[in-house]
Amino acid sequence: MNIQMVDLVTQYNNIKDDVDKAVIDLMSTAKFIKGPAVMSFEENLGKYLDVKHVISCANGTDALQIALMALDLEEGDEVIVPSFTYVATAEVIGLLKLKPVMITVDADTFNSTAEIIAQAITPKTKVIVPVHLFGQTADMESIMKLANKHDLYVIEDNAQAIGADYTFSDGTIKKSGAIGHIGCTSFFPSKNLGCYGDGGAMYTNDDVLGAKLRMIANHGQAKKYHHSVIGVNSRLDAIQAAILDIKLRKLDEYSLARQNVASDYDAAFNDIPQIQIPVRQHNSTHVFHQYTMIIKDGLRDKLKSFLAEHKIPSMVYYPIPLYKQDAFKMFFNGKEHSTTEILCQSVLSLPIHTEMDSDTQKFIIEKVVSFFDK
Questions:
Q1: 294/343 Cα distance (integer angstroms)
Q2: What is the pLDDT of residues 125-170, one digit of tens each?
Q3: 273-285 pLDDT per residue, tens
Q4: How is domain 251-373 classified at the architecture level of CATH?
Q5: Residue ranges of the chain that CATH labels 3.90.1150.10
Q6: For burial by CB atoms within 10 Å, which of 77, 184, 219, 254 has the most?
């Protein structure tokens, strides 16, 4: 079996006719930068997320950077960010000469909580960046209440959870990324909504922030050759937008396919004491960008090697806490986060994607079970 973490080839083959037509039609117009394809995708993504403003950009890292640039922060201002996440979330904070204040995460959901965030707030705190890790939303109702209490901005890193639904205590449902002041996402090919190159987007319901985000992403100009602020050049090209528009129409279908794969994994592994299957929050759906287990008793690396022997890929997201990365040592206060340390040593993600067939998944399950039956 040719098992992959994400099967983008089969996914493309299933939408090939639509994608090929969209690309060829676009080539005939030669409108490669901005233009109708980008406007259409931004409008349709806004409708899907129920947000007023969607501003596409070159990649998810740019989205985070531009979002921070729009908040008029000053050098040394503090931005709270998880220590268990991908580097991009903290990278842009340091790049803008802000201070990333790294916090641990919940041991079950891998997400930030209001209780953990509250302990890190100081007079210099200006922004909270919850990361909706692996496919489900952090507890945004509590986080927004905390942010409002301290007059803080919230930027949602929604690169891994686009399509997830968050339910508030009053029954209101909002899409992940559409709850904070600004939501950011990545369209990297392996993401749940991915293009065939790089891409990203920011979204907000705030008219002022929406206009500023769009201006910053376009060289700081709202009118051509009139540059109001220092900006960047960050664009989603039209070909990627046309592809994303097609895939957006299938996003809920893709999420359901991932959830079905995850449910089969759950049923197979739930009774294995050395495995903690993904924990679902009661107030968030899980779109399973990754199927990430906690492997107990120090067996993670042995299981990973065993699977590799049988040509089954697996991944460790993430093996090193952010505060132990060389790039961030100057921000490390010397206090390790026990939960982050444990997760870095015990998490393991199995293949999960929209085209996973039953035979492939059965093979993976059989090998995982056999490892613990030895």
A1: 7
A2: 999 999 999 999 999 999 999 999 999 999 999 999 999 999 999 9
A3: 999 999 999 999 9
A4: Alpha-Beta Complex (3.90)
A5: 251-373
A6: 184
